[in-house]
Amino acid sequence: MFSLLGALGVGCGDEPESSIFDSGDGLDTLDSVDDGSSDEIGETGPKLDMGNGEGTGTAEGSAEGGDECPPPEDTDAALTGVVYAPNFEIPVSGALVWASKDKPDGIPQTVYCEACVDLICAETPWTLSEPDGSFELNLDSGTWWVAVQKGQFLNINEIEVAPGSTNLGATLTSLPGQNEPANDRYIPKIAVALGSYDRLEDGLGKLGLGDTQINMNTYSESLISGTEQFDIWDNGGAFGTNLDIMGDFAQLVQNYPLLEQYHIIFVPCSNDLALFGLDDQAKANVRAWVENGGKWYASDWSNEFVEEVFPQYQEFFTELGSADLGGVYDSTGTVLDPDLLEWLDALPYALKDINPQNGGGGFPTINDLPLIETVDNWSGVAATPAILVEDGMGGTVDVGHKTWVEGPGDGFTIPGGNHPLTISAEYGCGKLMFTTYHMAEGSDTYIGLTPQELVLLYLILEIGVCQVPYEPPPPIE
Description:
CATH architecture of the largest domain: 3-Layer(aba) Sandwich
Region (Disordered): 14-77
Shape: globular
Number of helices: 10
């Protein structure tokens, strides 16, 4: 089953509509580059599903039967290319590339359930991008609607496919950087709770969701105000900023109609003054929003935004009664997820090591996988218990946290051994995610993306893919 709600319009708990496609105009004509050949076509595609009955499941692309339609027998054409992030630099692994004779629907513009659906290879040829972002899609020549999708990122184009092999340019194969439904370009609607100590907004800009300004004198890269393709709400970090602020984050979480306009909400590290708006109504609103398909991320000192909203999902190490540790620590983490590991290994050298573009050494690199250095950890996860819910077939399934990266703590408040550093879990049709570390320490300046930022950006794309919408566990007040 595929993450195709945005394309197929199947709502959480709804029956599929009788027609899953729209008609449309506009045509891009492409010429054949070289000849290609293929074998046989299957009747139906494998079932692709985020849930595997063991927590959050694996990345989109873990299929029963393979990561593409069976080799076709009679097709006379193939489309090739590379799927990139919106910045046209970072390759995207596990993106769904598919074709249809009818125009797909776009992404709903409010929170929704990304239900999984089946694809029939004979009618809708499809494939998944490799860890390096490359793909090959075998199909017949003629006019097709070709879609490239990862979660709520969706790029749709009508293409005249010539016989032979055609290499598509990055504009047609990359994830969009702007939400332009009229032009068949979709990105998730994102809210960022601007915190005191974490420059997550700069990381999103580097991903391609905004323009960045590079200063070679200070080796810094920062978001240019007004170019961001996401909304910013003040969560203790607005003082002195030149960014456009929508309002107080408390106003957002206490008002469900405001919440439901977003697909993803980021709550990076901030101080405890940011917690004043996290009252019972706000907690209920966030749970309802996640249950309906929202993706909720928090980091280190903002741990209360997962601990108080979803308390049964994780336990934190505490210091003087607080999960906000007084001392920072670095941790050499181990990447546990095989798909994430393959993607990191396939990255171009310039993305693995940003030191050459920052005047020398000092920043962590991706040269010793499966180990990666995470810096500026300010909290520690003590436990991620199983969260068992009914699977609808008389059994139970664990929707609790999956650990993507684990590593040692500070050796004081956090005892020896490895502990989760990066986790995600399911709640209804949505997800929650937490990292013990910043995306970018507020005082650090550098050009490019560090290993922990790359991991987080991978997960930003990954948490948008489909899952089985199990009934969530009852809340613990």
